[in-house]
Every structure is written in structure tokens, then in C-alpha cells.
Amino acid sequence: MTEKPVALIVLAAGQGSRMQSDLPKVLHRLGGVPLVGHALATGRLLEPEAVIVVAGHGAEAVGKAVAKLDPEARIALQEEQLGTAHAVRQALPLLDGFEGRVIVLYGDTPFIGEETLANLASHAADVVVLGFEAADPGRYGRLVTGPEGLERIVEYKDADAAIRAIRLVNSGVLAADAALLREFLPRIGNRNAAGEYYLTDIPELARAAGHRVEVVTCDEAETLGINTRAELAQAEAAFQARARARALEDGVTLSDPATVWFALDTCIGRDAVIGQNVVFGPGVTVESGAEILPFCHLEGCHVSAGATVGPFARLRPGAELGGDVHVGNFVEIKNSVLDEGVKVGHLTYLGDAHIGEATNIGAGTITCNYDGVGKHRTEIGPHAFIGSDTMLVAPVRVGARAMTGSGSVITEDVPDDALALGRAKQVTKPGLATRLMQVLRQKKGN
Ligand code: UD1
Ligand code: CA
């Protein structure tokens, strides 16, 4: 075991042509986030000193996505995809002065586990390759081992029948000291069946120079790489199955686990209850004991303890629900803070708003937050009562304990304790309803 500083290089320059897509492969979503986000998230757990993503196809889009996923990660550009060794070389200038262990990951291989990466990081050998016993070794590179560890890796295209019979194969993940990569990468040529610079030449070169080269193995499931839409769909199923199992283990009730969809970073507290057909987009935290009723969609939001949401509610980014808040059916909330005990039961849109403690929002209330150009805020104080079908034309403020009459269009601020009515006065004509009906029926001739 060694405790060296770690740097990550994530290879993500390939086109992924088998995806049949205009989107770079690593930007296809798995568990609600771009594929490359999975390798980045697991890699982060090692507390690396540097994280470099090698981008090529769609580099601009990949760069933007990476900046959101991991703001400290940097991008190395690989203009032409000349092979995995060439890709790693593009990252080395960004690791100038780094003297530790470099771990190379693939952006399209999302399931490598934290423990596996930790094993690679702390292994005493100079080069460590992550291998696995393949049920079907297919076109993977074959690991040729001997009494002293890994002798060499032979790519499928370059292998003869005897080598192809080997079932211990290369996952693509490799760890080596930065100094060793600086020394040997420039020596790798491209005289092979693919005409590419193979990173898999490192073990043989390093061993010939007297370095210790070893294989660490992991479960085949961790090495699943995504090349096609079908593989992406399978990976999504595997991801969801694991996320559901983890939620159940953590003490979350899932009424029908198979219908609940999680994102990579979904965080749900113990004794929360999640109904059928609930979808979690990225960035959701649900505290202990909260309840999400069936058919809700949540994304970038926080639900505090004791809150109930749904059925059929949508919480969009920036929705913050305080303790014991109740959000009912057909309610949409975006970029709004609801303080403790707020009730918003039915058919409402709250956007860019702050609602004070224990305020009641009547059915059909809408914050008119967008004027076609800009967004404006609505502030509602504590213990207020917003009558059904109130239009709150932002920017607008409703004070503490204030009320609005049903059907009001509120365009001016309402002071604390005031009642605001913004609607036409009712006119009642005795007997006119039946008389009107008689006239109408006569006209129709019956
Ligand atoms: C590679 C390994 C093989 C291993 C397999 C596991 C080599 C030479 N071979 O083969 O031993 O069994 O992965 O899946 O390393 N990439 C770049 N730039 C490049 C080339 C590739 O960024 O110039 C990226 C790709 O986007 C991909 C990864 O590196 O994420 C692997 O490249 P790929 O071409 O899929 O390698 P394989 O032929 O699968
Ligand atoms: Ca591949």
C-alpha cells in the first residue's frame, strides 16, 4: 500500500459513432447526468490533485458539460483520435510538476467502483492494469500474465488464436506513476493492426525497463462500457436497479421500486416514503420522513422533513420546501423558497418567489413572473392567505398576515394585515337567468 497523490485522466475524445448521434457519446445521459459525470464523480472520491478530461469530438460541448459537473476539472484537447496513448499524452502538459499516481479512466465506462479505484491508487506496483474475467472476451485486449505479474497486453486485432483464448481482459483503466508515463508514452509507436498509439503498450515497455507491472481485477459489471443506444439503455436499467436497492437499504420506502427513477446524486433520508412513478432528476435531496406521492417529477430541489408533495406535482430547480410544507396535485414550483408549514394544495404555479411561514396559497394561484423579457420576484409574508385564482403580477409583495380576494389580479404591493381585492364588482340581476333561457329557446324554435 502506498499513499501517493492521485491525478485522474478521463478519456472522452472518441466519436462514439455506433451511438448514431450528433451528441458526443459521453454527453448522453445516464442516471440523469452525462455519462462522463459518472467517472468524474467516482474519481472525485479519491480526492485527486488534478482531473483532466481529454476531449476531441464535440470538445466544446464536452468542455461545457464538464465545467458544470466538476468545475475544477480541466480539458485537454485531442484534435485527432490517434489512439489511447496519444490521448493520455495530450493530458500530460496539464500535469506538469505532478509527481504521483495517474489513473486513466474512460468517459464511457460509468460503473467502475470507488473501492476498485482506491485499490489502483494505493497499489505498490509501478503500473497497475484493471482487468476482469470476461464471460465473453469478445474484442477486448487480452492480459498476458506470468509469475511476475502482467507481461503485456495484446489488442484483439493483433492477437493470434492462442492469445484470443485468454479470458482475462483489459478494462482500459490503468494506473501508473506520472514520471513513468512521461518517460514511456513518447516511446509508443503505432505499428499495429489499428495503426493507433496504444496505451496498452505501457506494461511491456515498463516491464522491459525493470518496473513492476501488475493486474488488479474487478467484477465484470463494473467495466461495462457504452457504445450503442442499446448498451446505454441496459446501463440505465442496471443503474436504476442499484439505486433502488440502495434506497431500500438506506431505509427509504419505495411503494413500487421498479417505477421510481433516480439520478446519480439523488439523496433521500431514512423513513422518507416515495410513491409509484416518481422521477428524480439531478440535484434532489429529500429529508427524512418526507413523503412524495405518486407521479411527481423533481429536479434540483430540496424537500425538508415532514413535507408532503403530490400526487402529480413538479418541483423544478431552486424549489426549496421547508418543514411540513404541503404541495398538492398539479402544482409546479420553480426557484422558490417555501418556509415552514406553507400549504399550496392545488393547480398552482410558483416561480421566483419566497413564501413566508404558514401561508396558505389558494387553488389556481399563479405568480406571473415573466413579462416576455425578464423574470421578476414575488414576496409573500408569513401567515398570509392568497385567495383561489389570484394572479400575482411580479415584481410584487404581499405582506405578513395579508389576504387577497379570490380571482384577484394583484399588480400592486399589499401591506401587512391588509386585504386586497383586484377584480370586477359582482352585479346580480334577479330573474334574468330564466328569462334569458326562455328567449334563447324561443329563438331556436322549441
Ligand atoms: C481499449 C483498449 C483495450 C480494452 C478496451 C476496453 C487500447 C489500445 N485498447 O480498446 O485493451 O480492452 O479499451 O474497453 O487502449 N479515446 C480517446 N482518444 C483516442 C482513442 C480513444 O479519447 O484517440 C477514448 C475513447 O473515447 C474511449 C476510450 O478512449 O472512451 C477507449 O477507446 P476505444 O477506441 O473504445 O478503445 P477500444 O478499442 O475499446
Ligand atoms: Ca471501447
Structure overview:
With 446 residues, the chain is of the alpha/beta class. It has 2 domains: 6-223, Spore Coat Polysaccharide Biosynthesis Protein SpsA, Chain A (Alpha-Beta Complex); 229-420, UDP N-Acetylglucosamine Acyltransferase, domain 1 (3 Solenoid), CATH 2.160.10. 20% of the residues lie in helices and 29% in strands. It is built from 9 helices and 35 strands. Strands 12, 14, 15, 17, 18, 20, 21, 23, 25, 27, 30, 33 and 35 form a 13-stranded parallel beta sheet that branches. Strand 4 (50-55), helix 2 (59-69) and strand 5 (74-77) form a beta-alpha-beta unit. It is elongated and about 105 Å long. The chain starts with 5 loop residues before the first strand and ends with a helix. The mean pLDDT is 97. Bound molecules: uridine-diphosphate-N-acetylglucosamine and calcium ion. Uridine-diphosphate-N-acetylglucosamine (UD1) binds at residues 11-14, 54, 78, 81-84, 86-87, 106-108, 140-141, 153, 155, 169-172, 198-200, 225.
Describe the secondary-structure layout.
Layout: E1 6-12, E2 29-30, E3 33-34, H1 35-44, E4 50-55, H2 59-69, E5 74-77, H3 84-91, E6 101-106, H4 114-122, E7 127-133, E8 142-146, E9 149-154, H5 161-164, E10 168-177, H6 178-184, H7 202-208, E11 213-217, H8 229-249, E12 253-254, E13 267-268, E14 273-274, E15 279-280, E16 285-286, E17 291-292, E18 297-298, E19 302-303, E20 308-309, E21 313-315, E22 320-321, E23 326-334, E24 337-338, E25 343-351, E26 353-355, E27 360-361, E28 366-368, E29 378-380, E30 385-386, E31 391-393, E32 396-398, E33 403-404, E34 409-410, E35 419-420, H9 432-444
